[in-house]
Amino acid sequence: MNKTLLEIKNLYVNYGAIQALQDINLVINEGEIVTLIGANGAGKSTTLRAISRLIEPYRGKIFYDGQDITRLRPDRVVSLGIAQSPEGRRVLARQTVLTNLELGAYTRSDRLGIKADIERQFLTFPRLGERRHQLAGTLSGGEQQMLAIARAVMSRPKLLLLDEPSLGLAPQVVREIFSVIRQLHESGVTILLVEQNATLALQTAHQGYVLEAGQLALSGLTSDLLKDERVKKAYLG
Fold this sequence. Notes:
This protein has helices at residues 44-51, 74-80, 97-104, 111-124, 126-130, 141-153, 171-186, 198-204, 222-225, 229-236, and strands at 4-15, 18-29, 33-37, 59-64, 67-68, 82-85, 159-163, 190-194, 207-212, 215-221. It is α/β, with parallel strands linked by helices. The protein has one domain (4-92, 158-236): P-loop containing nucleotide triphosphate hydrolases (Rossmann fold). The strands form two sheets. A six-stranded mixed β-sheet has the order 6-7-8-3-9-10, sandwiched between helices. The protein has a four-stranded antiparallel β-sheet with strand order 2-1-4-5, covered by helices on one side. α3 runs parallel beside α6.
């Protein structure tokens, strides 16, 4: 049985008077791809931001690898092995591809390892290698998404949080991105995937959670969720 890598217990998050998450309980085992699906505004990105410690929970606990990380600083969370590729990519537009990747490794000090990992990203994403000295803001949307994922991987995470990796991308680019997600998983990275393309997300992941209005509505094996009439009606068209 795989060990638990991340566990969220009774998590509440408020934005002022608005309750964004209510009583969220979620478990991610080492070696899994887990997906979080739901409509816009359901609380998917908020969940990832709470794990990354970019927002403060109102109540509840987040455990990573057995350690309570609920109140840790975001940089400490990264150094423990959690990295996030944010929604909207958020690359540093006025910096080169190379600089973006170097900044992804800011918690590391092994210079030779960082250099080797950058070359590994260029092998994984050949187009980034071709554009290594180009400003990130001049890349296409697909290339920026590749860079956002590559930058997150530069911290050598055990748990990778992916927020809407297919958003706004052409089908061919989406196929490329998801091929890389599967490669990362095969290399030993555990992945929590937030994705608006519910069919693709459920076909890629092992376990799934369905969020509705900040609360968990359903969870289970993705093979079961794909057959669930409620999921089909609401998310699979």
